[in-house]
Structures are given as C-alpha cells and as structure tokens.
Structure prediction request, 536 residues.
Amino acid sequence: MKTRLCGAGAALGVLLAIAALPAPASADPGTPVALPLGPSDLPETRTTRTLQPGVTLTRIVRGSLDPAHRWTVEASIPAGDDSPDPDAPATTLKDRASADELAATLRGEGFEARVEQVTTPETADYEGGVLGWRVRVGSFEAQADATAERTRLRAAGHTGAVTYTGWDGESTDRGPWRVDVLTIDPSVFRGSLDASYGPDLENRETTSALANAAGATAAVNGGFFVFDSRFGAPGDPAGVGMYDGRLLSEPVSGRPALVVQADGRRNQVTRLTWQGQVVSGRSSLTLNGINRVPGLIRNCGGSPGDSPTALPLHDATCTNPDQLIAFTSDYGPVTPQGEGVEAVLGADHRVVEVRSSRGGPLPAGGSSIQATGRHVAALKALARPGVRLYIRTALRSDEGREIPASRRTNVINAGPELVRDGQLHVTPATDGMVHDGNPSWYYGWVHKRNPRTLAGTDAAARTVFITADGRGTDSLGLSITEAAAVAQSLGLHDAVNLDGGGSTTMVANGSVINTPSDAAGERPVGDALLILPPPN
Prediction:
C-alpha cells in the first residue's frame, strides 16, 4: 500500500585507475556504469586506490558547475485566508492560495517573488505527486546577494532562508557531484569491521576521533542519534545499536538496520524488532527500552501507549509516562535523573540498592532498571535487595530469525531502505519520513538534495559504504530517490540510508577525505563504522 501525504501539499594507497566516463550501462559487471545523475553526456571521473588488502576507496566526480544554478531566498509562507488550515504555522510549502497571497504581498512591497509548484517522485510506499507550493524571492549569482535580500525580507516582517537551486533535485542539473565509495571484499579482507560509540553512549565524538582511537584504516559515520538534550541524551542512538554482540539500544520497531560481522562476511540490511525482559525466577517484567531517558522515544516506533504514535516517525520524539528502561555502564557516568524508582544491580546481578528517585552512578560491571508511572509498583515488588535480576533481550530480523549475540556482530540503525534484491525499494512512509500534514518536512529531508551516507552489500557479498557531499556548490548532494539510484548503479543488491546531512563523514588513513557540511566542520556523532587493519 502506498502512502499519500495529507495536508496542504496533498499530496594514502596504491593508485589503481583513473577513468573518464560516461560509461554506458553494460551487462559486463566489470564495466562501471555512470552515476544516474543529470544528463547522460556529463563527464565523470573515477579514481581508485587500495587502503589495505580487500579494501578499496573510489572517488567519483560527475558533472561540473552548472551556470543555470542561482542563489535565492525561500520565504516562509503563513496560512492565507483561503488556506484549508488558516491557523497553521508558516512553513516552506503551503497550498497554492496561501503561496499566491504571500507572493502578491511581497511584490507589493517591492520584492521579486515567484510561486513554484513542487512535485516529488513516487517511491515503493509513497505515491508522490504535488507536495505543495513554495515562494522564492530573487535570483542571484552570489550567495552574499541572496543573504542581503533575506535581511531586507526580514526587515519587512517576513522570514525565509537562503538556498541554492542546484539542491532542488532537478534531473536536468549538470552537477557537480562528489561521491566516495569504500568497498570491502571478504574474499581478500583480513582485517575486521567494527562499530564504535566511543567512551559512552550519552556523549558524541567525531567519526575521525572514533577511527583514530581504534587505529582504523577507514570509517564512515553510523546511525541516527539524539542531538538535543530536550529529546534524550545527546549521542544516544535513536534506534538500534548492538556493539560487539551487546544490545545497548533498542530498535525503532520494524525499521531497517545494517548488520555487520567482523570478518566482513554475511553482512545484511534487515528490518528489526526486539523483546526485552527483567527476569527473577518465574517472574518477569517487559522492558520498553535500553540506555535511554525514560519517557522520551526519539524517532518513535516504541510501545503501545506512546504519544503521538507507536509507529516510526523520524526526527520526532514520542513520549510515554509509563516506562521500564534497562541501563548498562555503557550509558555514561550516571543514569538519568527524575521521578520514579531505580533498581541498581551489582556485577553478580543482585539488587544492591533501590533508589526512591531515578539517577546515579552504577557499580563496576553493574546495571540498573528504571521505572516510571504505572511500572513503579511492579519494579518495587520484584526488585528486593539481594534478589538476582536478569536483563534478557532478543533482536529479531524481519524473517523472524534472532540476530546472534556474538562479539563479532554489530548493528547500526538506519532508514529508509533504498535497494532490495537489486531493485529500487525506497520506503520513506514505512520508516517514518512522511509526516502527515507537514509536506515541508518531507520536502527538506527526502525530496531535496542533502549530504548522504549509504551502506549495503552487492551480489558478490562485498560491503559498500558511500558518502555524497552536499549543501555546497562544488557538490550538490542527493535526494533520497537519487541516493537509491546511485546505490543501485554501483551494484548494490541491498542498500540503506544511514545518518546524513552534517553527519556525513568518511575517514581514510587518519584524515577526513570528504567535506562535512556543518559550518563548524566535522560533526560529533553517535557512532561510526570502522574498518580495522589485520592484527600484527
């Protein structure tokens, strides 16, 4: 079933090869296929080097600066008198009547305003079509001129953002794009593939810091994470996180993840669910989460009773006053503070303390269970001092198979799915990227070009990590549907989207090789995927 968006829119190594393309699509798997970006006549170069046996890095540059692209100001549109929802807040996209009304007002105030319809492609679970209408002001060769126009717009009582038309995602755009590809060939690879969150879960570190601390040959940023302390502990995975076989963060139910093995074999993209319990003898309580602030479910997809939904909803924080959350010493120096109770367990699983309010340090090798709301009484009854409590968890794939809790297994959260069985299979609706009544969110996150980090496996069982720079004029980035097409063109049999935007980072031989888009430089992230050299 396809979803329809409701609301206003209704709708340093050895150089191996330098190749100049375009290369035509070919049945020969050894022949590179040009990236499906822009017109087919665009120039494309590929440079490949070996980082260690079984690991190659390819830099792909396609197209060149397109003289048709301009800087402009995208105005925030208030709901007009004829809008279906006159009380709705100002957003980038609105209904046609509201957009026309704002444009007329701006023209009357001396601005060169235009209304543009935004149409988005169909995906596997979303019908696409007209997202809504945007209002843009001016057209400038220089970003500074667009910034000055935004200042003038604000002085007139309006709001807006400076944007570049090359980020719109038009198929006629001539680039440029810069894409980096790490490939692990398990038939040759003798290192190890790992994931790291750093010293603890609740703080963030840069991908390069995580890579250098582990002595990694190469790395990419990993999954989504909590960014703002209002929505949990910054750095905490916003979805599944299994590290060295230990489940330290529960999945957003049913969303895809990347499962990797240390030897680089049998890696897979799969959808995950989980079960967790606190067990004492024949008694048990059902867990709602692991190593996160009780009551705050980032990206949603948690338990029945969560508000506003128990389904995945990306970049949203669902809430629930009744939670039972397990903590390990991996979380951080102290567990989250607040109302409720906390049973503290020693390394032998015995209850050493029951705190009448939540929060505090854990004993060495210890853990705890925090309860809020209606779960408080049940935990108090179960967690008597000296009693042994065991935290049991199981992670299952969409086929019902349990993900083995092996020290050689790591799992990173992701979404949406991009490629399945070699075919385009983009799932923004299933994975919470369609926000009902808010087409502007889809427009900014899915439809428009952004930096992206992708991962997957090809038909030869090689694991592939891809980064595409964006939010610049020297590399436009990818929309989600473009990302899927790029992954497919690079031969991926199954592929998924990892965290992107300012998080997109690739490291090789100790250095960041792409251009992260945040103004401050490389962004600290929640976790990273690391390619380690063979042991000495």
